[in-house]
TrEMBL record, chain A:
Keywords: Cell membrane, Lipoprotein, Membrane, Methylation, Prenylation, Transducer. G proteins are composed of 3 units; alpha, beta and gamma. Residues 3-68 form the G protein gamma domain. InterPro entries: G-protein_gamma (IPR001770), G-protein_gamma-like_dom (IPR015898), GGL_sf (IPR036284). SMART domains: G_gamma, GGL. GO terms for molecular function: G-protein beta-subunit binding. GO terms for biological process: G protein-coupled receptor signaling pathway. One of its GO terms (cellular component) is heterotrimeric G-protein complex. Guanine nucleotide-binding proteins (G proteins) are involved as a modulator or transducer in various transmembrane signaling systems. The beta and gamma chains are required for the GTPase activity, for replacement of GDP by GTP, and for G protein-effector interaction. It comes from the Eukaryota. It is a lipid-anchor. This is Guanine nucleotide-binding protein subunit gamma.
Length: 68, 305
């Protein structure tokens, strides 16, 4: 009978759950507010979000200049 | 001896009931803190405008499915690996191939660029993670300089030069403490295999993409799932996800050949990108956030901006 090994495995599961139960959680409203804050603060520095102009984005085609 | 067995059974039973109690307690605690949804908090945030994102570069050269890719810190070089057994380093500005290494096995499922830009790591069905120093000297045989850094008991599915703290395995996403080797948090809300996980730029959350056709956002401090990105019309699994620099956009590559762009805060889809002719298998935003690259089973990589 592998009794002792399943007891040992079960002990690990209980230890893991005790670890997770002792975790100090933050309220979702607080965590969500922080995520929103981070997004808004960094929005200007996000080229894909702001749609950076051709002059600064190396991948976008340069606007062609023509001499009149 | 009989008493020993009896004692063990009692201990097992009592441990099981303790585990059930703890699980119940955890659920209760988590539910108490769930006072609001992320999109409700984001209601007043300005909606995002129209996005014009197109394929700006197509990298052709692999002979089979592209399985993995990574950007170099110089924001222009890309390393990609394929089922054809080749690992190629590209200059994404010019689409030139700078290096190509043939691995001894096919299905090179993982590759990564070293932060220094001087080496790449890759591996797959050979169960090894090998590091190749990159050299521009044409006379040097890159394959000869390779170093094996890890032997696994099964195939290598992902490798990264920085502390990869997460693992998406079956339906669970687990966060590990690299120093103690312990799992500190576990999340199990997906209904199917998780294919990709990526940290939110602030490090306080992470997103996951799964075969259940949804992407989800988990906040590490609230210790729970805070958003689901899904649509009834999306029925194929998400294979890879990545955030834009500010974390406002989530790019996800799907098995239906498309890439969906999600507004992380509001939970809505901002854009859907077409172009690949087969499953999107890998997706990464460039280090400076000016573009993102997707690799597909259609043998190509596309750089979008």
């Amino acid at each position: 009978m592998s009794g002792s090994s399943s007891v040992a495995a079960m002990k690990k599961v209980v230890q893991q759950l005790q670890l997770e139960a002792g975790f100090n959680c933050v309220k979702v409203s607080q965590a969500a507010a922080d995520l929103k804050q981070f997004c808004l603060q960094n929005a200007q520095h996000d080229p894909l979000l702001t749609g950076a102009s051709s002059s600064t984005n190396p991948f976008r085609p340069q606007k062609v200049c023509s001499f009149l | 001896m009989a008493t020993e067995a009896l004692h063990e059974n009692e201990t097992l039973a009592s441990l099981k009931s303790e585990a059930e109690n703890l699980k119940g307690k955890l659920e209760e605690e988590r539910a108490k803190l769930h006072d609001v949804e992320l999109h409700q908090v984001a209601e007043r945030v300005e909606a995002l405008g129209q996005f014009v994102m197109k394929t700006r570069r197509t990298l052709k050269g692999h002979g089979n499915k592209v399985l993995c890719m990574d950007w170099c810190k110089d924001k222009r070089r890309i390393v990609s690996s394929s089922q054809d057994g080749k690992v190629i380093v590209w200059d994404s500005f010019t689409t030139n191939k700078e290096h190509a290494v043939t691995m001894p096995c096919t299905w090179v499922m993982a590759c990564a660029y070293a932060p220094s830009g001087c080496a790449i790591a890759c591996g797959g069905l050979d169960n090894k993670c090998s590091v190749y120093p990159l050299t521009f000297d044409k006379n040097e045989n890159m394959a000869a300089k390779k170093k094996s850094v890890a032997m696994h008991t099964n195939y290598l599915s992902a490798c990264s030069f920085t502390n990869s703290d997460m693992q998406g395995c079956d339906k669970k996403a687990m966060v590990w403490d690299m120093r103690s080797g312990q799992c500190v948090q576990a999340f199990e809300t997906h209904e199917s295999d998780i294919n990709s996980v990526r940290y939110y730029p602030s490090g306080d959350a992470f997103a996951s993409g799964s075969d259940d056709a949804t992407c989800r956002l988990y906040d590490l401090r609230a210790d729970r799932e805070v958003a689901i990105y899904s649509k009834e019309s999306i029925i194929f699994g998400a294979s890879s996800v990545d955030f834009s620099l500010s974390g406002r956009l989530l790019f996800a590559g799907y098995n239906d050949y498309t890439i969906n762009v999600w507004d992380v805060l509001k939970g809505s889809r901002v854009s859907i990108l077409f172009g690949h002719e087969n499953r999107v298998s890998t997706l990464r935003v460039s280090p400076d956030g000016t573009a993102f690259c997707s690799g597909s089973w259609d043998h190509t990589l596309r750089v979008w901006a």
